[in-house]
Design brief:
Helices cover 51% and strands 7% of the residues. It is α/β, with parallel strands linked by helices and 484 residues long. It folds into four domains: 40 residues, no CATH class; 126 residues, no CATH class; 145 residues, no CATH class; 143 residues, no CATH class. The protein has a four-stranded mixed sheet. It has a two-stranded antiparallel sheet with strand order 1-2. Helix 10 runs antiparallel to helix 14. The longest helix is centred in the middle third of the chain and has 33 residues. The two termini are 48 Å apart. 30% of the residues are buried.
Length: 484
């Protein structure tokens, strides 16, 4: 090739667009740019890879990539992605009302509600389940919540079945000597105004006999909406009266104990119900399997090792209505010059991830809500334990030199996620494994990033057509054994 065919480029003439996730130049001929990239220095490519690995130590960014997989499940959809999607819109938030007692109790709440009052009802129901779980576990007194039935359709139905005259009390009872709550609905001769006045004067305003309780049984009784916010004062050494004190705080010293606490108290789920919701996510498990998870003491529980994504999803869905207000209040309290705003379900999941895996406040991205602090007990660790824990929980290995991107940077530019997915598609399995060993010290992060690599290749790698598969199978059948 003669000299006149060569392309000469002055470095000062290159204008790089640093706002994009993909390095590119503006103001030069496309053919010239193609020539440049064809002879690109490997160091520039490696910088991109190092930035990816450094950034993926942030579990929030890992979650963004996982939500991308869920939302854009094919390469064609991924190519059309313009904005980063969070898992907020991918999750269904729920309060488990499948227990017959609470399902019946919720049936007689006010039905004509707007979105705000519906959300309030869900939050109060979640608090009732939290407090009720304390009673069922014998950590508290018997708990009763009642509601004066006002829904016209419900009253009409009760008039037919209970032979009343339009005034009814619906109540749910959490005995501290039983494993299941129960509900009752019965007629009353008092008007709603009379009942409201009674409720203001004291908790135990209804006959124990109608509620199936003994006269000597200690009971905490309140109106439905009075339960709103009670969890934050429950067992508080400063504000709570003796009536609201637990008999014993709950130990949360291990991953298994914290997992059980979240399942039983924050989600209000039995082992059997958690197994049901996990089966909805494709995990084959029964209540005995959940019991094994909670009782088998190991540094790496199987529910973290094999099913952590699905477990976090279910736990965050069922604890969302309980945690979101308390977490939002904490964020507002500890932030400056910011308006109050409710946390989303993804932030609840981040909290549960850190709380279950690490437990200590220093390793958690959000404040631990007061209701958890008041009802649990974490063994004070020695200085040696804390130093070792901080060392083992480092997110970035000393081998990783690149600056990790922030969640906001990734959210603002969808090209980062696309680029990283394309990098994964170019890597063989042996390459990704070597890279993980070089960039990360902890096994948990290695598994998280390896899962991303596997998922990307599973979703976006070109698949052979049925005709091509048949050709390969036919060729294999026709092959002869080699002459040796």
């Amino acid at each position: 090739m003669e000299d006149r065919d060569k392309i000469y480029i002055d470095a000062d003439d290159l204008i790089f667009n640093t706002e994009s996730s993909k390095i590119k130049a503006e103001g030069i001929d496309p053919k010239v740019w193609k020539h440049i990239t064809a002879n690109w220095n490997d160091d520039l490519f490696q910088d991109q890879v190092d930035t990816m690995y450094a950034s993926l130590t942030d579990k929030r960014i890992i979650s963004l990539m996982l939500s991308t997989f869920d939302k854009y499940s094919t390469l064609n959809k991924l190519d059309k992605m313009k904005t980063v999607v969070t898992e907020k819109d991918l999750y269904e938030t729920k309060v488990d009302l499948s227990t017959p007692a609470i399902k019946r109790f919720a049936k007689y709440l006010d039905r004509e509600t707007n979105e705000a009052t519906y959300e309030l009802q869900q939050t109060v129901l979640a608090e009732i389940k939290f407090l009720g779980a304390m009673s069922l576990s014998k950590n508290w007194q018997t708990f009763v919540v009642w509601h004066y039935v006002t829904d016209k359709d419900a009253i009409r139905e009760l008039d037919e079945t209970l032979n009343g005259d339009g005034s009814y009390i619906s109540a749910i009872i959490y005995p501290n000597n039983n494993k299941e709550p129960r509900s009752v609905v019965y007629p009353t001769f008092k008007s709603k105004d009379e009942i409201d006045k009674l409720a203001q004067n004291g908790e135990e305003v209804f006959d124990h006999k109608m509620l199936g309780l003994t006269k000597t049984q200690k009971v905490v009784m309140m109106n439905f909406y009075q339960a709103n916010g009670l969890a934050s004062f429950f067992n508080d050494s400063e504000f709570a009266t003796e009536m609201y004190q637990m008999k014993k705080k709950i130990d949360i010293n291990t991953i298994q104990q914290r997992f059980a606490y979240v399942r039983q108290f924050l989600c209000g789920l039995s082992q059997n119900k958690l197994a049901f919701w996990l089966s909805e996510e494709g995990i084959q498990i029964d209540n005995k399997g959940v019991k094994y998870w909670e009782e088998k003491q190991t540094d790496e529980p199987s529910f973290v090792k094999n099913h952590w994504k699905e477990v976090k999803k279910v736990l965050s869905e069922h604890s969302f209505h309980l945690l979101r207000i308390y977490m939002s209040n904490d964020l507002f309290r500890y932030s400056q010059n910011e308006d109050w705003r409710a946390v989303d379900i993804k932030q609840v999941e981040w909290f549960l991830n850190d709380f279950i895996l690490y437990g200590t406040p220093d390793a958690i991205r959000f404040e631990i809500p007061e209701m958890i602090k008041h009802t649990t007990e974490l063994k004070i660790k020695s200085e040696k334990d804390l130093l070792w824990e901080n060392a083992t929980l480092k997110k970035i290995s000393s081998n990783t030199k690149a600056r990790p991107l922030t969640e906001k940077e990734v959210m603002d530019e969808s090209g980062y996620l696309k680029q990283w997915i394309n990098l994964f598609l170019e890597m063989e399995e042996s390459k990704i494994i070597d890279d993980l060993d070089a960039h990360y010290d902890d096994e948990y992060t290695k598994k998280e990033v390896y899962y991303l690599w596997h998922k990307a290749n599973q979703l976006y790698k070109p698949k052979l057509s049925e005709e091509r598969i048949k050709q390969l199978q036919k060729r294999k059948k026709g092959q002869k054994n080699p002459p040796f």
